[in-house]
């Protein structure tokens, strides 16, 4: 068997307006054999870069093909375990790069390593954004018209599904105004696109459990594809109560790290859609374990994926080998120079916004380091939300 060792691990930071993409490159001692991963975490770029450097000390000199062995080392061999968001993201970035290496070593796409494709294509959905939520308390619900226009644009762009943040920041208990606001925005989107387009609404975990329930019930008539993070993800019992109270599928999971957090969601039947973020939850290795649990409970998987191109490629590879996977979040208009930075192995049909399998080895992505260097780190704008009385709110 060919002897192979990890020679070094690098991070390459690329500012992409809303966030800094953090790319991880694992380089082996075999000429030309390396892997790309991604460890993007908004507002924590420097922390993640440092965590990758710390964890890399465990891996230098190890065989990159022993992915599960190395994952256990990264997770367990520093006492604190890899269940914090910064460590989890660093582990994820390295893990993605290791799978990229293994696919390249065998000359096949990563999804072929897991038994080959289980579907012919994957549907993508886009994100409409959140309107002028910072002006919510001064608005008269005129945002509804804009949501309708954005919904039409998404459909004209080929998407059969889209998501929006039509639920504004709310205090733990408010009157009906924010609930009416959300209902008017979603009604405008539904009227704009008709009954056959799938609409998702993301609460961003802004509401309290009680307000989240009110929003869920108010939006139930509009037949949402799913209703995301109706309250803090730590409030699993409350998420379960909301799921039980409405017919709308509830989605959550983007802020959860490792299979252990997802296990409780499943045991309590708290949601219909799991949303692990492959760049945070522990990489493809952990996402596969989470997806296997979801399959056992007959719960859908739809990864959270607003980051950069390696995250998207990895999410798609997971989808082609995962029966419970239903749809992939897509960011297609983040920066105009995206194609200068990355070459992707998968193909997107612009008429249907569906993806066919990558045919290149590994994750099928190649990054241009010179182009990345043209967009160096910039401090992201920290988001601040305050309620009308000055109290701190959730963004």
What does this 3D model show about the protein?
This protein is of the alpha/beta class and 395 residues long. The protein has 2 domains: 6-108, Enolase-like, N-terminal domain (Enolase-like, domain 1, 2-Layer Sandwich), CATH 3.30.390.10; 112-362, TIM Barrel, CATH 3.20.20. The chain has helices at 45-59, 67-76, 85-106, 110-113, 143-156, 177-193, 209-219, 236-245, 258-267, 283-297, 309-320, 338-341, 369-373, and strands at 6-16, 19-28, 34-38, 122-127, 161-164, 198-202, 226-228, 250-252, 273-274, 300-301, 328-329, 342-344, 347-349, 354-356, 365-367. Helix 2 (67-76) packs antiparallel against helix 3 (85-106). The longest helix is centred in the first third of the chain and has 22 residues, at 85-106. The radius of gyration is 21 Å and the shape is globular.
Q: In a nutshell, what does this entry contain?
A:
The protein is of the alpha/beta class and 395 residues long. It has two domains: 6-108, Enolase-like, N-terminal domain (Enolase-like, domain 1, 2-Layer Sandwich), CATH 3.30.390; 112-362, TIM Barrel. It contains 13 helices and 15 strands.
